[in-house]
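My main concern about presentation is that the manuscript never shows what a single data entry looks like. For the editor and my fellow referees, an illustration may be useful. For illustration, here is how one protein appears when written out as sequence plus C-alpha cells:

***
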Amino acid sequence: MKKVITALVLMLVLAGCTRNAITGRKQLKLFPENSLREQALTEYRSFLSQNKVVADSRSKDAEMVRRVGARIAKAITEYYTAKGLGAELEGYQWEFNLVNDNQVNAWCMPGGKVVVYTGLLPITQNEAALAVVMGHEITHAVAHHGNERISQVALAQGLEVAGTIFTSNNPRANAIFSNVFAPTAQIGVLLPNSRKQEYEADHIGLIFCAMAGYNPREAVPFWQRMSQAGGQKPPEFLATHPSDENRIAKLESYMAEALEYYKPIGPQPR
C-alpha cells in the first residue's frame, strides 16, 4: 500500500511540473490559475472592505501607486506579447490600491490584485523605487510563485487537488490558501517565498520596472534603506525578503540587462 501511495504521489508531482514561460525554471503547479484568481478576488474584496483605502482623487500618493501599477502592467503585457506568451496573462484584471497602514509592506495576489501600504512610502521615497517594489511583488504573481508554494504545501499535507477545490469550500484548501495569500496574515504571506523565487522576482521585476520607464538603479539604494529601517529591528517586510549583501550583489548583476530595457518617462531621481 505504501508503494502505491508513493507511486501516486510521484505521478501527481510529474503531472503538476511545468516549465515557467518566463523564468524557464520547472515549477510544481497543481492548481488551475483561474481557481486561484477567483479565490484571490474574494480575499481582495474582503480586505479592501475592512481597511482604509486611500482614494486617488484625494491623494497624490494613491494616484502615484495606480500610475506606477498601470505602467508596469502595460510593460508586462508588452513583454509577454512580444514573446508570444500573451495567453499567460488571460484573466488578469489589474487593480492597484494604496491602504492607510503603517506596515512597511506591499503585495500582489493572483490575477493582478495589488496593495501598497502607506508605511512603505517613506522608505521608497520616490516613484522609481516604488516601481522597483511593485515590479518585484507583481513578478511573484505572474511567475506563479504562489501556485508553486501552495502546491508544495498541498502535496506535503496529502490534499486531494481538484479544479473546484476552493469554490467547494474545502476547509483544508482554504486554510492553505489563506496561509499563502491572505492579506490579513502578519506580513501578507505566512509562508515565505524561497530564496530562488525572491531572486527571480528581483531579476524579472527589475526588467518590468525598466520597461515601464523607471530607473532600475533605484533598486540598490532602496534595499539599503530597507535594511537600515527600524534600527536593529528591520521592517517585517524583510522577514520574507532577503536583505543581505548577496541580494545587493545580485541586483547589481542584473542591472546591465535591466538597463537595456530602460527608456525614461520623465525626470528620474539620481
About this structure: Residues 60-82 form the longest helix (23 residues). The radius of gyration is 19 Å. The chain has ten helices and six strands.
